[in-house]
Amino acid sequence: MAAAVSSPLTTHVLNTGDGIPASKMAVTLHRLDSELKIWNMLGVGTTNEDGRCSGLISQEAFTSGMYKLRFETGSYWESRGQTSFFPYVEVVFIITDPGQRFHLPLLMSRFSYSTYRGS
Amino acid sequence: MSALRLQHIKRHILPENKQTMAGALGTLTTHVLNTGMGVPAANIALVLYRQDSSTNAWTLITSGATNDDGRCPGLITKEQFTAGVYKLHFETAQYWASMGETSFYPYVEIVFTINDPEQKYHVPLLLSRFSYSTYRGS
Fold this sequence. Notes:
Chain A is mostly beta strands. In chain A, 6% of the residues lie in helices and 46% in strands.
């Protein structure tokens, strides 16, 4: 068994409209360069069959700062032949203690979404 | 009867507020609720943008703040409200800081697509220090 440390930042996307995990959704993680005020993309992934996306960032790279998770929700609904109200969802959050673990789920339907700091 | 409840009733009755409540400008509305405390989020700064379809740049439409009921009447006029991609930006951390609290999100941005500007769109934000949700309401 690999002794890999799991990602300090995880997400889980649920399709609450259909009551299933949202699989094959593209997710990108960005961090704000506090001097230049631009977003740097750190990682890109696709949610698996369980709607989870691992390995977005390593423990070493996970420093304090302002982060953004961008979920390609519009593309997801399109791939299912449906329209949706939001072309994408971006969740911006601040990490002050990168020693902690952060789980940021996204519960979404075609016309709604919610997110929270979970565990 | 609470002061907030009286205010709400007043807005339904008084002529100068009737136009807003009747929805003449009510093509796009929002409502911010502080679900952590179970109150409307009053005085939260917000900005409405529309995306320029050729350059993808965001054009500022309105900037304002929520009233005591967490609403912001007059976000956009019928003339301005054309089909396109819009963004509502809420200064949520500033709101929590004004109450001496930290929060996980520095701000909340909601991007949505308006295909039919003849319809009414209500985009509320339910907010706590560590969570938020939004939906197309009425």
